[in-house]
Amino acid sequence: MALKNILIHPDPRLKKVADPVASVTEDLRRLADDMLETMYDAPGIGLAAPQVAVMNRLIVMDCEKGEDATPDPIVLINPQVLWTSEERNVYEEGCLSIPEQYAEVERPAEVEVAWMDLAGKTRRERFDGLWATCVQHEIDHLDGRLFIDYLKPLRRQMITRKMQKLKREMARA
């Protein structure tokens, strides 16, 4: 397994729609393992392939947090939201591609998602709470959308400027 570099906003690849995955290959399984390792190392609870410069519809997530929590990683290939609840939830979201920036985002409280797993089987599950927020956030990445796109323009511009400054500092280091 190998840690991947996480793209930092603004990066044009983060605004592109990812391509569907045609089949589960050994390379895809290795990528999923690398993405999980990268996500845990960051640390985060979700990561989409475009965030590591791979333009495929693949996400990984694990919303079990806390020191005694048993990891519960999940890999979703070509995930699609089939249903959303009318009830809404507001969570303070962050993003590994927008480090140390957080904002409240309102999303459906529950979603039903279909995807292909690493065995090539079609899966379907209903997510709620943090899992629902996370899966929607990660699927947004596959569609070229970031959590800051839900914010008012001024707040979004402020965060983007901070990220530009961070990238300049990282380039100098």
3D structure, described in words:
The chain is of the alpha+beta class. The protein has a single domain, classed as Peptide deformylase (Peptide Deformylase). It has helices at 26-41, 129-142, 153-172, and strands at 46-48, 58-61, 74-84, 88-95, 98-108, 110-116, 122-128. β6 and β7 form a beta hairpin. The longest helix has 20 residues, at 153-172. The mean pLDDT is 96.
Q: Tell me about the biggest sheet?
A: 5 strands, antiparallel
CATH class: Alpha Beta
Oligomeric assembly: single chain
Question: What is the overall pLDDT average?
Answer: 96
N-to-C CA distance: 26 Å
Tell me the structural class.
alpha+beta
Unreliable runs: none
CATH superfamily membership: Peptide deformylase
Backbone shape: globular
**Which percent bin holds the helix content?**
25-40%
Assign the CATH topology.
Answer: Peptide Deformylase
- Percent strand: 25-35%
Number of strand segments: 7
Short description:
The protein has 173 residues and is an alpha+beta fold. It is 29% helix and 29% strand.
Primary descriptors:
173 residues; alpha+beta; 3 helices; Peptide Deformylase
Which helices and strands, and how do they pair?
Blueprint: H1 26-41, E1 46-48, E2 58-61, E3 74-84, E4 88-95, E5 98-108, E6 110-116, E7 122-128, H2 129-142, H3 153-172
Antiparallel strand pairs: 1-2, 2-3, 3-6, 4-5, 6-7
